[in-house]
Design a protein that fits this description.
Elements lengths: L1 H14 L3 H14 L1 H11 L6 E5 L5 H9 L4 E6 L2 H10 L1 H5 L3 E5 L12 E7 L8 H11 E15 L2 E2 L1 H17 L3 E7 L6 E9 L4
Keywords: Methyltransferase, Transferase
Protein name: Methyltransferase type 11
GO biological process, one term: sterol biosynthetic process
Length: 209
């Protein structure tokens, strides 16, 4: 029983990192997720003067990458973990001082930000923790500007093993909910394998009207 209890505790740290262990896990995820983060940023097609929101920003590595490559954009990061946001704050200290970066502690199911305030929303490896897909997508739709886009990156298998549960959820829940909310061009794109995990993203666009 103890091993299962320990596994559950470790899993909870990945969902909501806490304390010194949580800080270590945050930096571990930075190293592990570099390939899919780079690919996800490419899919955003970030243009000058835009605002980008990352859901589950973790230790702020993706934010820092975007801010370094695009000196004229603003990036916001949302995460529920105070521990991990402390790491993100350190990593993006200079950009926060110049108001190009902003960190928000909160839940993915209720964003504390204005309607139609961002051009792009993205997330890497948080989909597994969404309690209600429709609620999160509704919030994404609310905060996106017209013609704004979302890219939600996840894994649907490792090696020869397919994770049918996540694939079924995308097909039967995510895509229908996104279409019902009015998103257009909703599609699933295959990305590069990372540590033998199969990288995938589901993406879409908010119509102009």
């Amino acid at each position: 029983m103890l091993p299962q209890v320990f596994k559950n505790w470790v899993d909870s740290q990945y969902e909501n990192p806490r304390g010194s262990v949580g800080k270590y896990i945050g930096e571990k995820m930075v190293r592990q997720h570099r390939i899919e983060v780079e690919w996800t940023i490419e899919q955003l097609d970030i243009q000058p003067g835009t605002t980008v929101l990352e859901l589950g920003c973790g230790a702020g590595d993706a934010m820092a990458t975007i801010l370094q490559r695009h000196p004229d954009v603003h990036v916001m990061g949302l995460d529920r973990s105070k521990t991990i946001l402390d790491s993100a704050r350190q990593r993006n200290h200079d950009s926060m001082q110049t108001k190009r970066a902003k960190l928000i502690q909160g839940d993915l199911h209720q964003f504390e930000m204005m309607d139609a305030s961002v051009n792009h929303v993205f997330s890497v490896h948080t989909l597994y923790f969404w309690r209600d897909v429709t609620t999160v997508l509704s919030e994404i739709e609310r905060v996106l500007k017209p013609n704004g886009t979302f890219v939600i990156t996840y894994c649907d298998g490792k090696g020869d093993v397919e994770w049918n549960d996540i694939s079924d959820m995308i097909r039967n829940q995510f895509i229908p909910a996104a279409v019902n909310l009015g998103f257009k061009d909703v599609s699933v794109q295959r990305g590069p394998d990372s540590r033998d995990y199969h990288t995938v993203a589901v993406m879409g666009c908010k119509p102009n009207s």
